[in-house]
Amino acid sequence: MENKMDLNGLKYLIVGSGFYGAVIAERIANELKEKVLVIDRRDHIGGNSYSYTDAETNNEIHKYGSHIFHTSNEEVWSYINRFTTFNSYQHRVLTKYQDKTYSMPINLMTINAYYGKNLNPAEAETFIKSEIERDHIENPQNLEEKAISLIGRPLYEAFIKGYTKKQWETDLTKLPANIITRLPVRFSYNDRYFNDKYEGLPVDGYGKIFEKMLDHELISVKLGVDYFDIKNQIPQDCLVIYTGPIDKYFNYQFGSLGWRTTDFEQQTVETKDYQGTSVMNYAGEDVPFTRIHEFKHFHPERKQSDTKTVIFKEYSRFAKENDVPYYPINTDKDKEIFAQYKALAKDEKNVIFGGRLGNYVYVDMHQAIAMALNTFDAKIKNGQWRQ
Ligand code: FAD
Ligand code: UDP
Q1: Cα–Cα distance between 387 and 383 in angstroms, integer?
Q2: Which residue numbers in the chain have pLDDT < 70?
Q3: Per-residue pLDDT, 179
Q4: Is-contact 48 355, C-beta < 8 A?
Q5: What is the pLDDT of residue 21?
Q6: What is the pTM of this model?
Q7: Of 20, 27, 79, 291, which one is the catalytic site residue?
Q8: 121-133 vs 108-115: helix axis angle to the nearest 10?
Q9: Is residue 107 in contact with ligand 2, taking CB distance under 6 Å?
C-alpha cells in the first residue's frame, strides 16, 4: 500500500522512534535547528523500550519486557536526565530450579545454596576453580565452553543450559560466548544484576521520556507509517536515519538474519503480590516460559493497587518475517550474511543505518543512546554524511 505523505523539501527522515532514532531527532531539532520527520510503523513511540501506565493498577507496563536503565557513561546519564528523573530501583533477579529459588547472577549465595555448603569467598573461588578444571577447557570458543570455564559444569547445567536452550533454541556450542559474559559471576554476596554506576527506573515510565524528547516544534512524528510504503516519495537529498532491520532494507538479497522474538502472556492477577520480586527466571526445561515479570516491583515509590498486579510470562521463539525481532542470534552464518549487508550499507547514499536492528547488534538502552550521540557528532552535525 502506498502511503501518501507530503515529503517535499524534507531534509531529515528518521525511521524508527526507539532510543536511537529519538536521540538523533532531538539532536537535529535542538542542535541543528532543522525540521525532522520521525516515522514508526507501530502505533506508539519508543521502540522496544516503550512503557505505559496501566489505569487499573497504576503498574508501569513494559510492553516489550522489563527494561532497567543502567549505565556508567557520564555523558549518557546526564543526557537522559534531561528528560526524566529516576527512582532508586536496583535490579535483583531470582531463578527457580527444581522447586527451589536461587539468586541470579551466580554469586556466593547461589553457590552455597546449590551445593549445600557455607563457603567464604576464598573457599568458594577455590572450590569453583576445581569444578571448572574438571572439564579441561583451555580456550573457550562458544557459549557452552565459556559458561563451563566460568562456573563449572554442575552450575552450568542447573542454571544456564536449560534457560539458554529455551531462550535461543540453538545448539549452545554454536552460540557466541559473549551472550553469557553479559552476566557477572561473583564470589561475594553482591546479588545486583548490573555493575554500573547509575541505575534506576524513570519515575513516570519510558513512554513519557520519548514524549518529552520528541516534543519540539521542529519535530513531526507520524505513527503507523512503514518506511517501505513511502520510500519512493523521499526527496533525493534527504538524509534517512534507518533503524529498522538491515536485511529487510536490502530485500533479504543475501538471506535473512537470525532473530529471536518473544511472546508475552499478560495477566492481571487478583492478589497483592504475585511473586515478591520483579523478575523470576525459570531455569528448567520442564517449564515452557523463560521468566515472569511483575511490574509493580519496579516502582515501590508509587501508589499502586493492593489487590491486583500485572504479570507477563515470557516465551521465546524464532522470529518470522513479520514478528518483532528481539535478539540477534549471531551464529557464524549470521555474521557472514551481516558482513555482506554492511558492505552494501556503506555505499548506500544519504542513508545512515543505526540502532540494534540497523546494526544487527544486541545493545542496551544506554549503548543505543551513546551510539546515536556519537553518530550525530561524527556524521550529521557538520553535514559529514554528504562527503
Ligand atoms: P528499537 O527500540 O527496536 O526501535 C526501532 C524502531 O524502528 C521500532 O519502534 C520499530 O517499530 C521501528 N521500525 C522498524 N522498521 C520500520 C519501518 N520499516 N518503518 C517504520 N518504522 C520501523 N536495555 C536496557 O538497557 N535494559 C534492559 O533491561 C533491557 N531489557 C531488554 C529486554 C528485552 C526483552 C529486549 C528485547 C531488549 C532489552 N533491552 C534492554 C534493549 C533495548 O530494548 C534496546 O537497547 C533498545 O530498544 C534499542 O533502541 P533502538 O532505537 O536501536 O531500537
Ligand atoms: N542466562 C541463563 N540463565 C539465567 C539468565 C540468563 O542462562 O537465569 C543466559 C541466557 O543465555 C541469556 C544470557 O544469559 O540469553 C543473558 O542474560 P540476560 O539476563 O542479560 O538477557 P536479557 O535480559 O537481555 O534477556
Answers
A1: 8
A2: 1-4
A3: 87
A4: no
A5: 98
A6: 0.95
A7: 291
A8: 70
A9: no
Torsion of CA 91, 97, 102, 104, to 10 degrees: -40
Going by alpha carbons, the residue nearest to atom 16 of ligand 1 is 244
Instruction: Let me know if 260 is a catalytic residue.
Output: yes
Taking phi over 0 as left and psi of -120 to 50 as alpha, with beta for the rest, 92 belongs to beta
Q: How far apart are the first and last CA of the chain?
A: 34
**The amino acid at 377:** D
**pLDDT tens-digit series, residues 315-331:** 999 998 888 888 898 88
Report the pLDDT value the prediction gives residue 322, as an integer from 0 to 100: 82
- Kindly provide the b/e burial profile for residues 231-259, where b requires at least 16 CB atoms within 10 angstroms of the residue's own CB: eeebeeebbbbbbbbbbbbeeeebeebbb
Q: CA–CA separation, 43 vs 375, rounded Å?
A: 26
* Alpha-carbon span 364 to 69, nearest angstrom: 8
Is position 134 annotated as part of the catalytic site? no
DSSP assignment string, 327-350: EE---HHHHHHHHHHHHHHHH-TT
Q: Which of 314, 334, 356, 360 is catalytic?
A: 314
Q: C-alpha cell of 221?
A: 512524528
Residues composing the chain: 387
Q: According to the model, what pLDDT value does residue 1 have? A: 46
Residue 217, C-alpha cell as written in the block:
516544534
Structure-block grid coordinates of residue 257: 538474519
pLDDT digits 0-9 by tens, 188-202: 999 999 999 999 999
